[in-house]
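Could someone model pyridoxal-5'-phosphate with this protein?
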Amino acid sequence: MNALGPEPAPAEGARLDVLRSNLTAVEQRIAAACAAAGRPRSDVTLIVVTKTYPAADTRLLSALGVTDVAENRDQDAAPKAEECKNLPLLWHFVGQLQTNKVRSVLKYADRVHSVDRTRLVSALSAEVGKTGRPVLGCLVQVALEGDPAATRGGALPADVPALAEALAAAPGLRLDGVMAVAPLTGPFAGDPVRAFDRLAEISSLLRREHPAATMVSAGMSGDLEAAVAAGATHVRVGTAVLGVRPPLG
Ligand SMILES: *Cc1c(COP(=O)(O)O)cnc(C)c1O
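Reply:
Sure, complex below.
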């Protein structure tokens, strides 16, 4: 069956071929990393980060069997999600989230990976309450830079327990786990293996109090193997599937 319907136009067909072959390569990397770690392939979900790419690509990815996509900027994501709302996709929001964008993001996001402060917990919970939408899965984003001034979003490890507590207690929200980006500065700079091991430690402490919070969202195009080795359940891959992004405008 061809989920795209009629024959794609030539340009669309060429793009489909590129995405298919990139997806195959990423799939092979994930499978090899799982095998090396002695983990079943089904332990790890691939989330394709579609930021900066058009809705047409998201549609092609869906036709190729992708089930999970992620976006990091609401201005880019909102119209794209609207265009793709008929597709069987789960939408993950993975970027820094300002409280004034919460209403818009909750129109399409099934999960938010970037919860890093209690003010955001309150704003998300209030908005879910107002709209009556289904419960929102949330991850605590952990900053592994060590220096609060150097972080690009994320809660310091010491602040994770209290934030997780607030999240777990907030009506309309569900604490699903933790998320991190390998840091460019600090003690783990250039060492994603140790960074993701630290995240795994934080996850295991969290699960003592919140056993259902099993998601570990870690690993991107350059370091997904290290993340899978450290126990990531979700990898967020953009460039390796869609190509190098043009600089943000
Ligand atoms: C862009 C982005 C990714 C994907 O990064 P690639 O290196 O393109 O795979 C993953 N996670 C977050 C939070 C991102 O912003």
